[in-house]
Write a structure and sequence with these properties.
Strand order of the largest sheet: 3-2-1-16
Helix content: 25-40%
Mean pLDDT: 97
CATH superfamily: L-arginine/glycine Amidinotransferase, Chain A
Shape: globular
Number of helices: 12
CATH class: Alpha Beta
Structural class: alpha/beta
Strand content: 15-25%
Number of strands: 16
Distance between the termini: 21 Å
């Protein structure tokens, strides 16, 4: 399913005191409040994992908490994009696929994250018969893009990583993606990496598929240290073709001005890390008015100005090397037991 197609809910996980967010817990809670409040305004169904319902109510306020579904759960981190279920639709119906998650190639602890979908299934949150166990294969939601019509866009640095599935080849991976996800073809990017990124070039930091043959991607200016790498990516993107053989309609996004952590290391801020739903687009902002406004204008254009766009300050999220899309996972229509929402 394409991200902009109908869905049952959006899955998030609330940062708390037993996660790495402790030094900036108040700031990151403010980001989550803003995001969830925006989603509630647009009538999105939100499922929020939390250490306890009382904790979530304290963070969000009783009014907002009443508008969403709170599920008490155990998790290592809050990046539900990468351990949440994949939603697909095949001749057999609509399914929620649970792939393995190993902390972005064994970089971070993931034992509890890797059990989230299994526990949701055990507790009846998936629609009857929709859950599919694919935990023998490691696949993160941020590592692939789908147009909902059989095309998948991904990066070789991530999927071919030896610490995920033993360094499988592109042909081997393509067969798996076709079998598991129902893909008809796979487009590969071999270039593109943001400084500070620890996902091995997740596609949702670099380039996104949009409706009607549009592809939007990040572009650095010539003074940026990432210019050469992203220019090679752009050259490869220009060679990609739609299923009908025509080139994609390309839109280039600016990068935010460099943002650094307290030790001077650059953080992987990107406007490509937005979430699109049938009701609205939720995009990250970084306190840079000119860049934020320009990115908003371009993302809106990619979706033909048909959707309202909500800018959410993601400066706290980027401190932990992720952004808005990383923190969310849409759950496709027909995959969730909506009686429990």
């Amino acid at each position: 399913m394409a991200e902009w197609e109908a869905h049952d809910a959006i899955l998030l996980a609330l940062p708390h005191e037993e996660t790495d967010w402790v030094p900036i817990i108040d700031q990151v809670h403010a980001t989550y409040r803003s995001l969830i409040e925006a989603m509630v305004r647009h009538k999105e169904k939100v499922i929020l994992l939390c250490p306890s319902k009382s904790y979530a109510i304290k963070v969000l306020g009783e009014g907002t908490a009443r508008e969403i579904t709170l599920i008490e759960a155990s998790y290592n981190d809050t990046w539900t994009r990468d351990y949440g279920p994949f939603s697909i639709e095949t001749a057999d119906g609509k399914n929620a696929l649970d792939f393995g998650f190993n902390g972005w190639g064994l970089k971070f602890a993931s034992d509890r994250d890797n059990l989230v979908n299994l526990n949701l299934d055990k507790n009846g949150y998936f629609a009857p018969g929709s859950y599919r166990n694919n935990r023998d294969f490691v696949l993160e939601g941020g590592s692939i893009e789908s147009d909902g019509e059989g095309t998948i866009l991904t990066t070789s640095r991530c999927l071919c990583s030896p610490n995920r599935n033993g360094g499988k080849t592109k042909p081997e991976l393509e067969e798996i993606l076709k079998e598991r996800l129902g893909a008809k073809r796979v487009l590969w990017l071999d270039y593109g990496a943001l400084e500070g990124d620890d996902t091995d070039s997740h596609i949702d930091t670099l380039a996104r598929l949009c409706p009607d043959g549009v592809l939007i991607y990040v572009q650095a200016n010539k003074t940026d240290s990432q210019y050469e790498e992203l220019s090679k990516m752009e050259e490869q993107i220009r060679s990609l073709r739609r299923p009908d053989g025509e080139p994609y309609n390309l839109i280039s996004l600016p990068l935010p001005d460099p943002i650094h952590d307290s030790e001077g290391n650059r953080l992987p801020a990107t406007y490509a890390n937005y979430l699109v739903t049938p009701r609205a687009i939720y995009m990250p902002t970084y306190g840079q008015r000119i860049n934020d406004d320009r990115a908003k204008e371009l993302i809106k254009k990619a979706f033909k100005n048909e959707l309202p766009i909500e800018g959410i300050d993601c400066q706290p999220l980027i401190v932990q090397h992720g952004s808005l899309h990383c923190a969310t996972m849409q759950l496709g229509r027909g995959t969730i037991n909506t009686n429990l929402l």
